[in-house]
């Protein structure tokens, strides 16, 4: 890896760690004042130890439900169905508990508590809008697993338009992990990128030639583990992503 020049680097604690425009997260107290569902934590993120169990309670003046979503890849965390209950709060009598057991890297991601009457089928891509409209609240979960510093991506290939922004989901399992994104070509790549640890690297308006381009995600300050992300650019000038996870360093393309 040392013979390649990173075109994007995130250092833990840098200003680029802020959530991007697609993840509008309000302060908990302010959201509650506008009628948003109330999650029983004032923090926007939480880091669970590997193997730990944790319950998140959400309550509101109307029935609520829990949803999970990742915008750039298919993600179904191994969780039990949430349990609804009646609270003892007359102002917020409806509650629901999200139960995360035996925490692993498969649980890393964003969870939403949303008003049932505001959510309809196939509205996952509008969950952040619902947060901004005080119709949902959100929590992002990290897991401290030293053996797995990067979130595994199991999704099949998907497509984005040439020259359009696209996300390379190079995501750490802990917020303090520094990550680099490499383009597997000689010389530096002057790509315009932004980063946040909940989504990965967003590449803005970049033209990629037809053929095969390889993106390599690397965790810097922990055990070596890389996600090999291959971009195919077909004749129709769209980009096609596929992902493979390798324990070797650097990864091997097959």
Automatic annotation (TrEMBL):
Write down the SUPFAM superfamilies for this protein, in alphabetical order. Immunoglobulin
Q: Which domain of life is it from?
A: Eukaryota
List the InterPro entries. Ig-like_dom (IPR007110), Ig-like_dom_sf (IPR036179), Ig-like_fold (IPR013783), PDGFRL (IPR042495)
Renumbered to this chain, the signal peptide range is none
Q: Where is the Ig-like domain?
A: 37-113
Which named protein is this?
Ig-like domain-containing protein
| Species of provenance | Anopheles culicifacies
**Taxonomic classification:** Eukaryota, Metazoa, Ecdysozoa, Arthropoda, Hexapoda
